[in-house]
């Protein structure tokens, strides 16, 4: 495996990949992973909800650098969707996903049925109070409980050495890290940088919902966050910069702005300024599509 000199370019697998196996049950998953282990391989897991795009394949490539057998789970997790969210219509394309994963160098696709992930009578949930209740958690109650629960299940089912999550879902990454630390799950959590279109829009399966007019406005989310980060790094107060960011998004044509927040990059508490790492996070709607994004404070 080679890591390219330009860090924006995903690493490339040098060896021909042996093809993609598909498993659907936890016992088949464990059998495959046990075989990889017997062969002396390091296992990487990339959890996804399918509808895979270049951003997901970048996670696979990242996993191929830190592990030598990569399993990708594709499961549209019902417990992380609110009652009025898009669970029923969330894009699903297993055949297309499998083709992209094979081309991207993944070795194993785990595509469980809902009753395998949540057996009849299943009641246990993993909650991450505090970190899971703010920002996205405040606007999508129960979202991070659904995420932490399914990720805990996937990590326990596969027991990989390392699992890769995108920085695009920055709060999710921190919630998963906290959960893994608190529950002593012996898996290293790796963060992979956000992949963007040429105009700055972060790749997301939900971008498919945008109309042509909304798609033209959508990159302003990234540029506004970048400008907010720039403002606070030049000494503007976080509250003023957040207000300016929200106003700018509305002027750009966003229908509603859930939040623009300047936070500590590790705890997501209000940012205390340097030397603490800062992160600017936002969620805003364009018509019926809700977009999220985040950037570091330089
Ligand atoms: O980021 C996602 O696609 C999902 O939240 C995850 C981590 C696969 C859990 O369902």
3D architecture notes:
The protein has helices spanning 26-38, 54-66, 94-104, 114-117, 136-139, 143-158, 170-182, 212-217, 220-233, 238-252, and strands at 21-23, 43-48, 69-74, 108-110, 162-166, 188-192, 256-264, 278-286, 289-296. The protein is α/β, with parallel strands linked by helices and 298 residues long. It folds into 2 domains: 21-192, Rossmann fold (3-Layer(aba) Sandwich), CATH 3.40.50.620; 205-296, 2-Layer Sandwich (Pantoate--beta-alanine Ligase, Chain: A,domain 2). Strands 1-4-3-2-5-6 form a 6-stranded parallel beta sheet, with helices on both faces. A 3-stranded antiparallel beta sheet has the order 7-8-9, with helices on one face. Helix 9 runs antiparallel to helix 10. The longest helix has 16 residues, at 143-158. Residues 1-17 have low confidence and may be disordered. Bound molecules: pantoate.
Provide a concise account of the structure shown.
This protein has 298 residues and is α/β, with parallel strands linked by helices. Helices cover 37% and strands 18% of the residues. The longest helix has 16 residues, at 143-158.
Q: What brief labels describe this structure?
A:
alpha/beta; three-stranded antiparallel beta sheet; binds pantoate; Rossmann fold; 37% helix
Average pLDDT, rounded to a whole number, is 94
How would the global form be characterised? globular
Spatial strand sequence of the major β-sheet: 1-4-3-2-5-6
Q: How much is the radius of gyration in Å?
A: 19 Å
The third-level CATH topology of the largest domain is Rossmann fold
SSE order in H/E notation?
Answer: EHEHEHEHHHEHEHHHEEE
- Please give the number of β-strands: 9
Percent in strands: 15-25%
Poorly predicted parts: 1-17
Largest sheet, in brief, is: 6 strands, parallel
CATH class of the largest domain: Alpha Beta
Helix content: 25-40%
Number of domains: 2
Kindly report the name of the CATH homologous superfamily of the largest domain.
Answer: HUPs
């Amino acid at each position: 495996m080679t890591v390219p000199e330009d860090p924006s370019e995903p690493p490339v697998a040098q060896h021909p990949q042996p093809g993609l196996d598909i498993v659907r049950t936890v016992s088949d998953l464990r059998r495959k992973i046990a075989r990889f282990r017997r062969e002396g391989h390091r296992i990487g897991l990339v959890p996804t909800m399918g509808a895979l795009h270049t951003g997901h394949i970048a996670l696979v490539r990242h996993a191929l650098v830190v592990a030598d057998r990569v399993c990708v789970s594709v499961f549209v997790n019902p417990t992380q969707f609110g009652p009025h969210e898009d669970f029923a219509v969330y894009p699903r394309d297993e055949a297309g996903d499998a083709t992209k994963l094979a081309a991207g160098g993944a070795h194993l696709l785990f595509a469980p049925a809902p009753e395998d992930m949540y057996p009849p009578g299943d009641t246990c949930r993993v909650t991450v109070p505090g970190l899971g209740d703010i920002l996205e958690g405040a606007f999508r109650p129960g979202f991070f409980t659904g995420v932490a629960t399914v990720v805990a299940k996937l990590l326990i089912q596969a027991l990989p050495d390392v699992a890769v999550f995108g920085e695009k879902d920055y709060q999710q990454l921190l919630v998963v890290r906290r959960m893994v630390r608190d529950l002593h799950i012996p898996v290293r959590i790796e963060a992979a940088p956000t992949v963007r279109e040429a105009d700055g829009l972060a790749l997301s399966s939900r971008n498919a919902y945008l109309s042509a007019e909304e798609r033209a406005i959508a990159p302003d989310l990234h540029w506004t966050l970048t400008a907010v980060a720039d403002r606070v790094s030049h000494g503007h107060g976080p509250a003023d910069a957040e207000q300016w960011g929200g106003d700018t998004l509305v002027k750009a044509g966003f229908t509603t702005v859930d939040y623009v927040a300047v936070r500590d990059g590790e705890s997501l508490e209000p940012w205390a300024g340097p030397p603490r790492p800062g992160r600017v996070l936002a969620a805003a709607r364009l018509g019926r599509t809700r977009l999220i994004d985040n950037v570091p404070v330089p």
